[in-house]
Amino acid sequence: MKNIIVEIPEWAYEFHGHKCPAMPIGYRAGLTAMAKLGVEKASNKELYLICENGPAHAAACFLDGVMSSTGCTYGKGNVEKLNYGKNAITLVDLKTKKAVRVSMRPEFFEKALNSEFVQLRKQNVHPNDIKPEILTPLIENVKKADENMIFTVSEIFENNVQLPKGTFDWHNCSKCNEIVFDNASKIIDGKVMCQPCAAKII
Fold first, then answer.
1. Could you read off the pLDDT of 68-113 as tens digits, one per residue?
2. What is the domain extent for residue 196?
3. Domain contains 118
4. What mean pLDDT comes out for the span 139-163?
5. Which of 19, 64, 94, 193 lies 20 to 30 angstroms, CA to CA, from 119?
């Protein structure tokens, strides 16, 4: 086992909103994927993240950690969520089209899900209200564990995902007057409308 400590930046916890084990696991998953691909954190749209998280389940905080380490965000449009209910990701280097899948090892995940922290969360105890003596050892374990104990990492494979072309062209909606960009607008009777206004007419 490698003698390592992977520090999780404080700003990542602030972005996420609370301290928990799942966000740091996601942060490390992103680091692991980037290391496998030999890439750095995305400053623009160099990478594309496909996350298998579901809409509402334990440890879904994982995704915030992955976004923090990889730089892939919903605002940049380079995150896709599959809603499989699994803590696993595929990270794609959009320049080379090379990709890698990183998933949590069941034995590591099972231990985390059986922890006292998760049992308290089942009782609707907010993470901020869980005692540090329960939470801190879990986070420290994530920071110190060998990545091979936490993750299964695939071989590199090709993924030809294509980002939709962005636009700077916009119009005022003919109904509400709010600005709507061309690639999301609707034309109704020759008039440009935003989707909510168009839905009221169609």
1. 999 999 999 999 999 999 999 999 999 999 999 999 999 999 999 9
2. 170-201
3. yes
4. 95
5. 64
Are the C-beta atoms of 89 and 29 separated by less than 8 Å?
yes
Whether 128 and 181 map to the same domain: the answer is no
Amino acid at 144: K
- Dihedral angle sign, alpha carbons of residues 4, 73, 90, 112: positive
Percent of the chain whose pLDDT exceeds 70: 99
Distance CA 173, CA 180 (A): 6
Query: Which one, of 167, 47, 143, 34, lies nearest residue 95 by Cα?
Result: 47
My answer on whether 190 and 137 are in the same domain is no
Taking a C-beta distance cutoff of 8 angstroms, is the pair 184, 117 a contact? no
If pLDDT is split at 50, 70 and 90, which confidence band does 137 have? very high
Residue 2, in any domain of the structure: no
Instruction: Specify the number of domains making up the chain.
Output: 2
Residues 30 and 102 in one domain: yes
Query: Do residues 148 and 87 both lie within one domain?
Result: yes
pLDDT of residue 126: 94
Considering only CA atoms, which of 138, 143, 135, 137 is closest in space to residue 2? 143
